[in-house]
Amino acid sequence: MVRFLTILAALVFAGGCGLLDDTPRVKIGIDIPLSGEYAEYGQRLLAGIQLKCDEINERGGLDGVQLKLVIRDNESTPLGASKTAAALGGDDEIPAIIGSYSSFNTFCMRPEAEEYKIPVITPTGTADVLTERNPYIYRTCFTDSVQGKALAMYAYHRTGLRRIAILVDAEESGTQSRNIGFAVKKAFTECGGAVPVHEGYYSYDFSFRRQIELMVKAGVDGICLPFTSATAAARFIQEARQSGFSGTIFGSDGWDEAEIYQNCGSDPGKTFYFGMFAADYQRPDVQAFVEKIRQRTGRIAATCEAQGYDTLGIVTEAIHLGGNNREGAIKGLGKIKNYVGVGGSITILPDHNADKYIFVKEIVSGHGSANSSRLTAIISPYNVRKIYDVSN
Question: Which of 42, 208, 271, 369 counts the highest number of beta carbons within 10 A?
Fold first, then answer.
């Protein structure tokens, strides 16, 4: 009996989740990859989510009630994402789920979202199809088609490109790259530009020489690599410059990783890419966020940390506006207009997509030291001509 009481007391004392802890809390479900292929990205999302949660609770909670994260690892698999969504959806006290990281795993949560009538908000799933024909899926990031259109219009109107080549990932898993590529081609030609080369590449291609020769022969002044991995993009940049191509090379948010600077060569030339966040955005709250993430993780904050942070902020704001239940969260999400996050202004549109700022970054030569990026402009994606210059 004494041993039972000792164990019971320990459980009650342990961090607010004990057996007899009946403290009122607002619970938010988190369905992200903490192991498996996407574990690094899931952990970075979680770092941003947990920072926002701590800040809310330190300020007294959400409407005076402490926030509790119910975190589940979907193991980076579609089945894991589905099972975890079912487990979280089965808890009636959870009004909303944040997840998942990849578009495909988020897509596999759609049946559970509909079955349990629970809103699922993805911070990073950009595939257009996610929010189609399902009233419970939302996103806080831009879509592939919007990003592709913005890339094309920025390249044409701001960079002055007139003839571009597009190089996409031809692997079965490269759907996102191809979708963005088609959107770039459509929008660029509608602007009046030409796309004489639209090629693909495979992971087993050790060299881009064949594609580069086609592009140079076609007389293009720009080359677009949409959602190519940072590693592949860096290799392409280095090889294109070595081959004598001096035009602009540009890409999408898939480039936004440290590898792009480490492996693109000492003279990357004129390059730019899009991102969901910029650590050098000189706004005081952004710089405070960057410093807090550095103190917690030792890393410079990037897309995942920022999107996790802003997504929890939007979800809690929706609950504040609509109520702490699933119907209330859905109602509140429809009221999110010009939410000011560390990733810029975010509005949840009627189709459940997000009008979210796009950050334009240039790769800057390190001149003997490491390359880096420089934020040069911010785009309002649903009004692409509305470009805010922020370069120094």
Answer: 42
Q: Are residues 238 and 369 in the same domain?
A: yes
Q: What is the pLDDT along the chain (392 residues), one digit of tens a residue?
A: 444 333 333 333 333 343 445 677 899 999 999 999 999 999 999 999 999 999 999 999 999 999 999 999 999 999 999 999 999 999 999 999 999 999 999 999 999 999 999 999 999 999 999 999 999 999 999 999 999 999 999 999 999 999 999 999 988 888 899 999 999 999 999 999 999 999 998 877 788 999 999 999 999 999 999 977 888 899 999 999 999 999 999 999 988 888 888 778 888 999 999 999 999 999 999 999 999 999 999 999 999 999 999 999 999 999 999 999 999 999 999 999 999 999 999 999 999 999 999 999 998 876 545 668 889 899 886 665 566 666 54
| Cβ–Cβ under 8 Å, residues 102 and 125 | yes
Question: Are residues 36 and 134 located together in one domain of the fold?
Answer: yes
**Which residues make beta-bridge pairs with 225?**
251
Residue at 383 is within a domain? yes
Q: How many domains does the chain have?
A: 2
Same domain, 244 and 319: no
Q: Please report, for the domain that includes residue 153, its CATH number.
A: 3.40.50.2300
Q: Which residues contact 294 (CB under 8 A, 6 or more apart)?
A: 300, 301
User: Token pair 């164990």 is at which residue?
Assistant: 7
Q: Among 381, 343, 390, 391, which residue's Cα sits nearest to residue 151?
A: 381
Inter-CA distances, 91 with 29, 70, 86, 118, 205, Å: 9, 10, 9, 10, 48
71: nearest Cα among 39, 93, 38, 49: 49
Pair 190, 301 in one domain: no
What is the CB-side half-sphere exposure of residue 96 using CA atoms within 13 A? 32
Q: What distance in Å separates the CA atoms of residue 30 and residue 277, rounded to the nearest whole number?
A: 21
The boundaries of the domain holding residue 188 are 145-275+358-389
- Assess if residue 16 is contained within a domain: no
**Residues 136, 194 within the same domain:** no
DSSP characters over 51-79: HHHHHHHHTT-BTTBEEEEEEEE-TTSHH
Whether 237 and 365 map to the same domain: the answer is yes
Q: What angle do CA 140, 253, 361 make, to 5 degrees?
A: 110
The pTM (predicted TM-score) of the whole model is 0.89
